[in-house]
Write a structure and sequence with these properties.
The protein is of the alpha+beta class. It has a domain at 31-92: Ybab, Chain: A, CATH 3.30.1310.10. The chain has helices spanning 11-34, 71-101; strands at 36-41, 46-51, 56-61. The protein has a three-stranded antiparallel beta sheet. Helix 1 runs antiparallel to helix 2 (71-101). The chain is rod-shaped. 15% of the residues are buried. It holds the Pfam family YbaB_DNA_bd.
């Protein structure tokens, strides 16, 4: 068996690659924070903007959506828009990480 046991790679090479991957990942996470995505619901009555680090940045509600007789509809539209925005933000952030680290197609939970 070759010395090092990893197809001829020594521990220094492995550590250097791990460090490079960690730096790329940190850089991608920083870039993801700057990403912003928007989603809307109710035909644009509610619009939500979120960042790649899963923070809500804005919620816009069309005044016509404010119907005191149907508050539940407005609540449903807000929930739908928030969930869509957060899903899109997560996908955008994962794409940023995949592009920076070469881990395309890997969903790494807990990164953001």
């Amino acid at each position: 068996m070759p010395r090092g046991g990893m197809g001829g790679m020594n521990m220094n090479q492995i550590m250097q690659q791990a460090k490079k991957m960690q730096e790329s990942l940190a850089e991608a996470q920083d870039k993801a924070k700057d990403l912003e995505v928007s989603a809307s619901a109710g035909g644009g009555m509610v619009k939500v903007t979120a960042s790649g680090d899963m923070q809500l940045k804005a919620i816009e509600i069309d005044p016509e959506a404010l119907d005191p007789e149907d508050v539940e509809l407005l609540q449903d539209m807000i929930l739908a828009a928030v969930n869509d925005a957060l899903t899109s933000a997560s996908e955008a952030a994962n794409n940023e990480v995949a592009a920076a680290t070469g881990l395309g197609g890997m969903n790494i939970p807990g990164l953001f």
